[in-house]
């Protein structure tokens, strides 16, 4: 997510006088068990850089927690606000990441490739010894955490991308990506009424289909949490706070769909999901960085967050959140979401 007014989350995107378009990630190296791209899985070698505002980066935050990779893959959290050099480490003492020693994520990009044509996006994985960016491939990072980092998973880690269900997971995720994850941005950054209306219709058509799918099943695919749930959750948890008003996705709120509201609350209250969500960062970023959409920079006071902790009753549908595994342990010291970002 490079979420300044000339580019958008996940990869580099273009808008302005053209329809909204999300580019492919420029750095698509993979960190694998066999090191086929020159980047072998190795505890302590890499640093995951995220913004808690970003839905694409938040996928990696959730996956890392669920799989228990906190001790193997360190975490850097950027300021939700950017300047002209994009993501910066002003939340850290002295304005520098304490491990990488840099002020801007752009420095890791430059260490990898000087003058590359894209924006500086998160999530990003940086090689600590060299300070070079390894990958900003937001689609692949979480899949590799689930399938390539298995030797470093915690005991009881869930299988987030089970092989027998991958075809169905991929099919479900494709529609959700196109119409929901990316669809809210297509609506929010549309340049014309027809373009906006098309994205709006696609978004709510897909949400209606997803709501119907989840009416009698607890999770999207199978009876456990998978990658598909993570990808849907990170958009839905932001829906009422930013997408409904800021991106004009206003047919209905999440809280007005009993199924989707219950489903998202169920996940929010599951260890590894809600404990990564910072509503303060989310609102500060969207409303203050998108000056083309919100030129005043006024950040709404609402919505009321207290409902996130209310009973959802989704356990009545059965399902086993972690399959044969167990919940993740407590959030590591120093990684807790500050109180102002929680209900």
If you had to describe this structure to a student in words, what would you say it looks like?
The protein has 343 residues and is an alpha+beta fold. Helices cover 32% and strands 6% of the residues. It has ten helices and six strands, in the order E-E-E-H-E-H-E-E-H-H-H-H-H-H-H-H. The chain has helices at 55-67, 106-112, 138-147, 166-181, 183-188, 193-214, 227-236, 239-243, 258-268, 279-289; strands at 13-14, 21-22, 46-50, 74-77, 124-127, 132-135. It has a four-stranded mixed β-sheet, sandwiched between helices. Strands 1-2 form a two-stranded antiparallel sheet. Strand 3 (46-50), helix 1 (55-67) and strand 4 form a beta-alpha-beta unit. Helix 1 (55-67) crosses helix 7 (227-236), helix 4 runs antiparallel to helix 6 (193-214) and helix 4 (166-181) packs parallel to helix 7 (227-236). The relative contact order is 0.14.
Summarize it.
This protein is of the alpha+beta class and 343 residues long. The chain has helices at residues 55-67, 106-112, 138-147, 166-181, 183-188, 193-214, 227-236, 239-243, 258-268, 279-289, and strands at 13-14, 21-22, 46-50, 74-77, 124-127, 132-135.
| Total number of strands | 6
Strand order of the largest sheet: 4-3-5-6
Using the CA coordinates, give the radius of gyration. 19 Å
Largest sheet entry: 4 strands, mixed
Task: Calculate the terminal CA-CA distance, rounded to whole Å.
Answer: 25 Å
Task: Kindly state the percentage of residues in helix.
Answer: 25-40%
Order of helices and strands: EEEHEHEEHHHHHHHH
Secondary structure class reads alpha+beta
Mean pLDDT: 94
Shape: globular
> How big a fraction of the residues is strand?
5-15%
DSSP helix count?
10
Q: Low-confidence parts, pLDDT < 50 over ≥5 residues?
A: 4-17
